[in-house]
Every structure is written in structure tokens, then in C-alpha cells.
Design a protein that fits this description.
Layout lengths: L1 H21 L2 H13 L4 H31 L6 H127 L15 H14 L3 E5 L3 H13 L3 E6 L2 H14 L5 E5 L2 E5 L4 E5 L13 E6 L16 H5 L3 E10 L4 H13 L4 E5 L5 E7 H4 L1
Helix pairs in contact: 1-2, 1-3, 4-5, 5-6
């Protein structure tokens, strides 16, 4: 029995070797368990052997089923699976080829991309260098053009300034020329008028000796004509003249022609007084004129402090006759710092005026004489005056003594 069991165990061991090769490890443990049971008591071995055979039979059946299943899915024994496997293999090969082609394509594409990128970098660098060079050249040309433009603009400004200055100078010169031309025309007309007055004056005075120069500080020919006409008009008995000179000669010659009248000439400058007496003596006119040297002194006339002739020097000469004509051509305003130095004539001499006294005020174109005329009008509302055109301006004033009283 023992030998039979041993033989049976050998068979089991052989099968176990096969199972070890083709089955899972858990079956190996089972059979090792079965193997150890053989060494138990002999009475128990038969039962264990039967159980082991049953287990073995079951395991062998399981193994057979598993093998059949494995064979079923083995391509060698299953044509459909084999075909599917071949098809999958073909697909895999095509996929590998496609993948390889894609890899080659991507490698080529990457290489081309890298080449394009490198060429792009090179081209971009070249373009940047060219752009930098171009911009540098443009900046250099721009700076050169700007410098030349600045120089040209500077020269243009200089030329423009020069032309403006020349134009301004020409404009000033033209304005000055025009003013001078107008002044010259005005002076020529005035000269003609004065020449005409002088010729007329000489023709009526019947003087055998030429008259001294007129104009400037002396009276003008037009005022001399006004004086001569006034003398002929009123035929005065007494004429008082403030400021001697040519007007003294004109008055004396006119009174000689009229055949009546006397002139008192007041002069603040002793040299001028002697010169006037010499001119009168030269022409034989001393009997018609009394020249009085009366210095200037501070006085209160017309409620104002002023400088005028010393009245006591000639006041006694006015006691015998009233003044019919007063000629105001002195004191010399141009030689005095006192404003309106001739103002005192009317306040000082008004008590000596005749009822129809006439006053001739010369140089009214000057501001001082113009202001004097306004002051006289304010102080003596009864006076009436008219402006007579002359080179220096003349006012003919009528003082009505009856209305003043």
C-alpha cells in the first residue's frame, strides 16, 4: 500500500511539475499542501488521497477549460483573431510608418522653421542695421539741412532786418522830405506873401533910404502893412509903441505922410533905443517920434505879479493926450523867463486910452500871446478883437472906453 501511494505521489509530482509550469502560484501551494499530507498516518492517507484526486480532477478540469480558452484566443488556433491581429499589426505598422513620416515631416518642418527663423533673424539684423544706417544718414542729412536752413534763415533775417532798416530809413527820409517839402511850399507861399507885402509897403512909404531887414525878431512885412493901413484908417494923434525897431520907422513914415500924429516908442534895451534914434535921424523923422528907454521892473498889474516897463519913465508923456493906437510888440518874450511878459500893457495903459483906442498885438501865434489875449478878454469883457492873418499872427483889439465906463 505504501509503495502504491508512493507511485501515486510520483504521478502527482509529475503533474505538479506541469501545473507549476502552466498554472498560477496558488495552485502550487495547494499541491504542496496535498504532498505533505501523504506523510501523515497511513489510515488517513487513503481519505486524503481520494480528496486529493477529487481536487486534482477539478483542478485539471479547470486547467483544461483555461487551456481551451487560452487556445481560443491564441492566434494560431483562431483564424479570426489571427486575421484581426494581422490587421491590427498592419494598422500598427501603418501607424508606425505614419508616425515615422510625421516625425520626419515635423523634423523637416522644424528644420525649415529653424532655417526660416535663422534667415529671418539674419534678415532682421540686416534690416535693423540698414535701418539704423538709413536713420543715421537721414539724421545727418536732416541736421545738415537744418544747419544750412538756420544759416539761410539767419542770413534772410539779417537781410530782412537790413531791408527793414533801409525801408524805415527811407520812410523816415520820405516823411521828412515830405514835411520839408510841405514846409518849403508853405514857406514859399509865405515868402511870396511877405515879398508882396514888402513891395506894397515900400511903394506907399516913399522912403529914400531902404528899410532895415525885417522878419525874425523884427516885424514882418505883412504886420508892417497892417500897421500902415490902421494908421491910415484912424489917423491918430498919439501912438504908443512897446518895443522899438522897424515898426518905429514904418509908423514915423506913415505919420509923416498923413501930416499929423506923434509916436512914443518904449524900449527896454538901451542899445536898441540908440539904434532906433540913429535910424530916425538918418531919415529925418526924429520930430515924429520920441524914443524912451524904460527898464523892466517887477510890478503888480491886473492883480498879478509880473515884469513890465517902468511906467514912471514915460507916464508924464501921456498926460497931454490920450492913446489912439497901442502897438504891443515888446517886451521881448524870447529873452525873458517870465511867462506872458506882455500882459501888463492893458492893465497899465488902459487909463490912458482914448474912447476908440485900437490895440495891435503881434506874435499871437505864440502860446504866451494867445494866453494874454484870453486873459485880457476875461478882465475886460467890453473889448472886441479880430484875428488878422499874418506870418506871426496879429490880433486887432478895439477897446471902447465909453462902454468900459
Amino acid at each position: 500500500m505504501k509503495n502504491g501511494a508512493i507511485e501515486h505521489c510520483d504521478i502527482i509530482l509529475k503533474e505538479l511539475k506541469c501545473i507549476i509550469v502552466f498554472t498560477k502560484p496558488e495552485y502550487l501551494l495547494f499541491f504542496l499542501f496535498f504532498f505533505f499530507l501523504i506523510y501523515f498516518q497511513e489510515g488517513q492517507r487513503t481519505v486524503l488521497s481520494i480528496l486529493g484526486l477529487i481536487l486534482f480532477t477539478q483542478i485539471e478540469s479547470t486547467f483544461r477549460i483555461r487551456r481551451d480558452i487560452k487556445n481560443q484566443f491564441n492566434p494560431i488556433h483562431n483564424p479570426i483573431l489571427n486575421a484581426q491581429l494581422q490587421h491590427s499589426k498592419l494598422i500598427m505598422e501603418m501607424s508606425d510608418q505614419l508616425t515615422e513620416s510625421r516625425v520626419h515631416f515635423m523634423s523637416g518642418l522644424f528644420a525649415q522653421t529653424k532655417l526660416i527663423h535663422d534667415q529671418g533673424k539674419t534678415l532682421s539684423k540686416s534690416l535693423n542695421d540698414s535701418q539704423v544706417n538709413l536713420m543715421s544718414a537721414i539724421l545727418a542729412q536732416t541736421k545738415l539741412i537744418h544747419d544750412k536752413s538756420s544759416e539761410s534763415q539767419k542770413k534772410i533775417n539779417e537781410v530782412s532786418t537790413c531791408l527793414s532798416n533801409h525801408t524805415l530809413n527811407w520812410e523816415k527820409w520820405f516823411i521828412k522830405f515830405n514835411d520839408n517839402h510841405l514846409t518849403l511850399l508853405k514857406q514859399n507861399r509865405l515868402n511870396y506873401f511877405e515879398l508882396e507885402s514888402y513891395i506894397s509897403l515900400v511903394s506907399v512909404l516913399q522912403s529914400n533910404i531902404p528899410l532895415p531887414p525885417m522878419r525874425h525878431s523884427a516885424i514882418s512885412p505883412d504886420f508892417a502893412c497892417i500897421l500902415h493901413t490902421t494908421l491910415q484908417e484912424i489917423k491918430p494923434d498919439l501912438v504908443l509903441e512897446l518895443g522899438s525897431g522897424i515898426s518905429t520907422l514904418i509908423t514915423a513914415l506913415t505919420l509923416k505922410n498923413i501930416g499929423k500924429g506923434h509916436l512914443i516908442s518904449i524900449e527896454e534895451n538901451a542899445i536898441f533905443a540908440e539904434r532906433t534914434n540913429a535910424e530916425l535921424a538918418l531919415r529925418g523923422l526924429t520930430q515924429y517920434v520920441t524914443v524912451v528907454h524904460a527898464e523892466l521892473s517887477e510890478q503888480n498889474l491886473g492883480n498879478r505879479e509880473t515884469i513890465w516897463y517902468a511906467l514912471h519913465r514915460f507916464e508924464s508923456l501921456l498926460s497931454h493926450s490920450k492913446i489912439d493906437l497901442l502897438v504891443v510888440d515888446g517886451p521881448d518874450q524870447s529873452q525873458s523867463k517870465t511867462k506872458q511878459i506882455r500882459f501888463g500893457a492893458l492893465p497899465a495903459l488902459q487909463p490912458f486910452f482914448s474912447d476908440d483906442c485900437i490895440i495891435l498885438l503881434d506874435d499871437t501865434n505864440r502860446q504866451d500871446e494867445s494866453d494874454i489875449l484870453k486873459e485880457w478878454t476875461r478882465l475886460y469883457p467890453v473889448i472886441k478883437f479880430e484875428m488878422i492873418y499874418s506870418e506871426k499872427g496879429t490880433a486887432k483889439i478895439r477897446f471902447n472906453e465909453r462902454e468900459a465906463k
